[in-house]
Amino acid sequence: MDSRACPKPKKHCSSGSAIVKYTRKQKEQAVISLCSRIKPAKEVADDYGTTLENLYNWKRQLLNEGCVEIMT
């Protein structure tokens, strides 16, 4: 059977909830909130409607891009 004839099934969110797209500004604000340590990381993630994993991924991504100046 030709693999092109049967495309791979689309991936869906395992939780069944809608997939949310965050703007760069929203990610930056969430990371700033995380790094300010005013609230626990779980609470910051809840405030932004995301997971701890996403929050830490955003932090790593922004720091790797050299966006440290937004933190000042």
Key descriptive features of the protein:
72 residues, mainly alpha, 3 helices
Based on secondary structure, the structural category is mainly alpha
Spans where pLDDT lies below 50 across 5 or more residues: none
Note the overall shape. globular
Approximate helicity band: 40-55%
Mind summarizing the main beta sheet?
A: none
Q: Care to count the β-strands?
A: 0
Tell me the series of helices and strands, N- to C-terminal.
Answer: HHH
Q: What number is the mean pLDDT?
A: 79
Separation of the first and last Cα atoms: 58 Å
DSSP helical segment count: 3
Q: What's the gyration radius in Å?
A: 17 Å
Strand content: under 5%
Would you kindly provide a written description of the structure presented here, covering whatever features stand out?
The chain has 72 residues and is mostly helical. Helix content is 46%, strand content 0%. It has helices at residues 24-36, 41-47, 52-64. Helix 1 (24-36) packs across helix 3 (52-64). The radius of gyration is 17 Å and the shape is globular. The protein starts with 23 loop residues before the first helix and ends in an 8-residue tail after the last helix. The model has no long low-confidence stretch (mean pLDDT 79).
Brief characterization of the structure:
With 72 residues, the chain is an all-alpha fold.
Write the layout of secondary structure elements.
Blueprint: H1 24-36, H2 41-47, H3 52-64
